[in-house]
Amino acid sequence: VPLLVSGVSSVTSFLVVRLLTEVTLVSGIVQFVVALIGLGVAIDYSLLLVTRWREELVDGRSSAEAVVTAMATAGRSVLVSGVSVAIGLIAMVFLPVPFLRSIGYGGIIIPAVSVAAVLTLLPIILAMLGPGLDRHRLRRPASTGRLWTGWATRMIAWRWPVTIVCRGLLGALAFVAFGLRLGAPESSSLAQSGPAYSGRVAVERVAGTTGALTPVEIHVPVGGDPGAVARLVASVPGVSLVLAPPDAAWRHGGTAVIDVIPADEGGTTAGQRTVERIRTAVPPGVRVGGATAQSMDFVESVYGGFPFMLGLVAMVTFVVLVRALRSVILPVKAILLNLLSLAATLGAMVLVWQLGYGSWLWGIAPTGAVTEFVPVMIFAFLYGLSMDYEVFILARVREEYDRTGSTDAAIVAGMGRTGRLVTSAALILFLAFASLASAPNTELKVFATGLGLGILLDATVVRGALVPALLAIQGRWNWWLPRRYLRGDPGHRAGAPTGAGAVR
Description:
Elements: H1 2-20, H2 29-58, H3 63-93, H4 98-133, H5 146-157, H6 159-176, H7 195-207, E1 216-220, H8 226-234, E2 239-243, E3 251-252, E4 255-262, H9 269-281, E5 287-289, H10 291-304, H11 306-325, H12 329-354, H13 374-404, H14 407-436, H15 442-474, H16 490-493, H17 500-503
Antiparallel strand pairs: 1-4, 1-5, 2-4, 3-4
């Protein structure tokens, strides 16, 4: 059933993307994103609803009653999860880069269509065909998973050691992320055979430097002196050769183009510093371009406003989670853990791709840098996908706390009922990203492995260990909600236990 819903969701998503191409340009990367991430997200959401439906059947409810209860509980979690995924992707729509905006559009389509399919088509299938489809089950689902119940109990008992170890690991990886260098991969990481490789070697031999692979183009406006600019640029440290022929191919309408061969590739720190020195040296009105300059402008434009975008995304997420979890502490914890997990993922990417501790698995040498658009895309996708698992777990823990009034019991029951689901969902997404990493494009490989490492790290270290340990440490403060909001709290109206801070 989840595969069926996922198939419908994927086809519908591609139809929506097709309509989107009628009004705007769409990056070719969107087709991979919709196919693989859409597949994983739709299956994840379907699994959550189907699992809860089967659980209600075991408790003695009819199929129709089970569907209603599953929609009221798991269906609500699906909606919140879909909104969380969309929040991270909406941020890309406001970036001043057209191809990133198109990926943001495509990314928003994925959770929107998946949520719509799970909340409309799936309940109909379960109500009409569910009992018949579930007749030949391999075994009856237990009320709680024995493995995950035992695991949660151990995490509660070892809450402080688990918190210290997990935070230490994530903190160490996050520290490595400070060494992240954005730019084009170095030539040594590119293909080492084939016609393109032969051409690259020929260019290097003629120019005498690999900097010839990333030339700097200079535009001299009308009234400028190309010869004077060429002589000025030739004296800049880091410049290997300046080309300014006076023939018509390099002149047009009184303007001129000058090509500069730097001594170092543009993907290196030295190459970027050379471009900065050239920009400082040329007269006003003379424009410095080329792939390296474009990359530097991209980083300044996108990441210059990144703190503001991050704050806006965190604020909107906080509002959504406060409403969903009826707590102030849990949303803050979820957002902080998400940011720590993202920083740790970037650190892992630095180790694997930039420094080469694992890039050999793909037959690729260390890139020395990470393509500039990859980190912002990983943030946009991974922020919401990681929040999915947080919502799956915390929504069930909240439900169990409302029923029992005990934080420890709620953690054990909540993890016992969602642990297998979160593990399966994360594994499905990880396999989707692993298949995407087999694409021939190096940038896609880096993007896919970043997402895969992030999902793996998040589902194991963060959600599997750190979340239950922190919930146990925080105790009844997990459920704190200011008194003025209690009147709108359904748990409070029903007489369910409220947090210690709220009671005071």
